[in-house]
Amino acid sequence: MARKSWHSFSEYQALRAMMEGNTTASAARRLGLSQPAISRSLSNLESRVGMTLFERESGRLIPTAAAVRLNARLDALFAALDEIDGPNETVQETLRLIAPPTFASEFIVEHIASFLKSSPDCYISLEIGTSEDVISGVQDDRYDLGIIGVELTRAGAKLIPFRRSLAVCAMPPDHPLARKTSIRPADLDGERMVAQSYRHARRAQLDKLFHEHGTNPQITCETSTSTASIDLVRMGMGVAIVNSFPSAQFPQKNVVFRPFASAITYQTYFTAPDHRPLSRTARHFMRHVRFHTPKDEFSETV
Question: What is the CATH number of the domain that holds 47?
């Protein structure tokens, strides 16, 4: 059967609404139509363009690469229409964001504040959880964007590299090791140390490094986050080997950082659902964070 050659704006609207909402119910609510009407529009559009745009998987409609490409080509059309008509009222765009405490405590909240000042029409919902919570929440489409400092991978969530950073030794400014410009594994022999818990892969990596150098630090306690480790260092519980990012981005009361001479490095990622394109607000927020994260001596943008 020959394909129809005319354009159907209602079909394009249905496609846009599906890409943004990911379900026919959500698309129907957005456009004020019934779910059967959305389904018919999408079916007609597939017939007209001669391509499969959505595939059903575990009860959900997943956009194909063809749908993503077509949706991207429609950006200019809908932007032009928005410019012609102009909004009747301010439309508030929402970003559902999730991050672990190490990133949320200062780093993310500071960027949220500066982003909202420059984008007053946006609304951000921030959830704080473990890295596992970040990945599972993004995978299940409960959040639009997350940030993590570990390489957790799972179907349904993609990792977008953001920052590469070095391991540093955190210590009180009057600690004898603070006079050194760099800390070696051997320097920590016999030193009181706050360690990461064993559920972190870095703990095993650090233990192996100490074993290779014949180093035996005195572990006073262990924690699951860099933030807690630094707080315990501040309270006199010893030194700690931590990820420099984002802690070194902010002045730390009664704590200084020195590079830790080792092959241990860290990677920070944005994570987002891989079954749909990033929302416009998520893209703008990522760009804002990249642009406004200052340079420091221990990390760099990738």
Answer: 1.10.10.10
